[in-house]
Amino acid sequence: MEVRCIVLGILVFVVSAVVQAAEPLYEDRLLRKVIDAYQIKPLTSQTSDMQAIERLGQALFFDPIMGGPHNTSCATCHIRSKGSVDALPVAVGIGSTGVSRQRLLNEQALVIPRNVLPFFNRGHSDFSAFFWDGRVQIGPYGRFESPLGDRLPQGFENLLAVAAVFPLAEPDEMLGRSLRRGGNKANIHHAELVDDRIDPDNFQERTLNVYENLVARIVGKESSTNSIQSKYRTLFSAAYPEVEDYDIAHIGNALSAYITSAFELQPAPWDHYVRGDNTALTTAQKQGAMIFFGKGRCAVCHSGKQFSDFKYHGLALPQLDVGKHGGYLDYGRAKATGRADERFLFRTPPLRNATKTGPWGHNGIFETLEEAIAHHFNPIPLLYRAQQGRPREAELAGRLLSYRSPILAEIYPVKQRDVELLISFLEALESNTIMQNERAIPLSVPSGMNQFVLK
Predict the structure, then answer these.
(1) Would you state the pLDDT for residue 48?
(2) Which phi and psi angles does 85 have, rounded to 5°?
């Protein structure tokens, strides 16, 4: 009798466990309702192989010949091993060598007072705006809008291609400075990329002149015996077999093709969960998702497959000593649009692989995700700490708060456990690129000037 009771008890336990396994957990039932309500769709990867145009873009991406002084490339700041960013609060451009913290060692280095944005999934049509201030964006009727306005050269195939060529003409980023602004120091001079007849302070004239001279530097003429130009002409000819005269659009399109292929992400655990796999997320990640889509109101701005609405919001981030528009000042979106009511607004950053791309914030002020999330809920502590011994920052604090997004004012008081759960959910958005490093990173570049580590 006793044995039969024990056996019966075991059977009841097993049947109960099977029934529970068959039934969705409480978190799953709630989360499935959220997914249906938000009409959330999983990420679909856009796989592509390295064809001729991607190989051209790869060479251009890693080759420091693209920088005015021949010492800076796209890969200088967009490092694969560091989440496609440089792991610095703000970027270090012309005037230095190496990657990441190595670039801080040169006192002549020029600082770009913006945090480097990652490249993950940038080839997706979801991206309707680029850069923190959205100065390159899709406008009405699908037109490409940029600081060049109607003078933007024709032939760009997509918005990423347009965005890819603007850093090439930024003095402190890749171009270098004129003799008038930077002296004759070779490591910060733009060499032959800006003609003497061009006013270096005229942005549009200078940019168009840089584009023309950069193409000439890279491909030269058919009669040229320069070995670097010969190698590039071979690459350009393979990528564009029916084209004889190359221009900046061909460079932009090649860079876009490479970035799209090399930084395309595989589906993350979250995508597998959305497709129906309840085991793809941990309990903490599911609870974090409920906060993200629920009382945390994160999904109001971090929406869609890329977790960004690609709109502009104010977070009341303290300004740094060096700003994009002067000491202590970065006007953000307002500088791109000229609208005073858009001061201190910045584009919502996408969140895929956000756990790998710190520091965070448009000026890299957050060293941890905990700090970044907590500031969304309550900006006062960080603003207060930033004021200590900096009276000008105290004057700005009130203005920054006045431009803070009203969405944030409606969020409930944060708890430490909620922050931890939100970070767990962000970890569910992590995934590797489809293309592995051995294919994405070239063994060499045509110029042969590999001063930096190709990683």
Answers:
(1) 75
(2) -125, -165
**DSSP string computed for 55-77:** HHHHHHHH-GGGSTTS---HHHH
The helix/strand/coil state of 18 is helix
Task: Tell me which H or E stretch contains 418.
Answer: helix 416-427
CA-based R_g, the chain, Å: 25
Check if the beta carbon of residue 165 is closer than 8 Å to that of residue 248: yes
Q: Kindly report, residue by residue over 289-338, the tens digit of the pLDDT.
A: 999 999 999 999 999 999 999 999 999 998 877 777 777 789 999 999 99
Answer whether 112's CB lies under 8 Å from 67's CB: no
pLDDT over 80 (residue 216)? yes
CA distance 442 to 235: 14
Identify the band that residue 5 occupies on the pLDDT scale cut at 50, 70 and 90: very low
Q: What number of other Cβ atoms are within 10 A of residue 426's Cβ? A: 24
Would you say the C-alpha torsion 395, 400, 406, 411 has a positive or negative sign? Answer: negative
In angstroms, rounded to a whole number, what is the distance separating the alpha carbons of residues 208 and 204?
A: 6
How do beta strands 111-112 and 144-145 pair?
Answer: unpaired
Residue in 235, 197, 233 with CA at minimum distance from that of residue 50: 235
* Alpha carbon distance 179, 68 (integer Å): 13
CA distance 90 to 96: 14
Give the pLDDT confidence of 333-374 residue by residue, as tens digits. 999 999 999 999 999 999 999 999 999 999 999 999 999 999
| Identity of the amino acid at 133 | D
Task: Output the CA torsion sign for 215, 130, 158, 264.
Answer: positive
Cα 323 to Cα 348: distance, rounded to the nearest angstrom:
19
Q: What does DSSP assign to residue 441?
A: S
Q: Is 136 helix (H, G, I), strand (E, B) or coil?
A: strand
Distance, C-alpha 270 to centroid of its chain: 20
Query: Buried b vs exposed e over 201-238: b needs ≥16 C-beta within 10 Å?
Result: eeeebbbbbbbebbbebbbbeeeeeeebbebbbebbbe
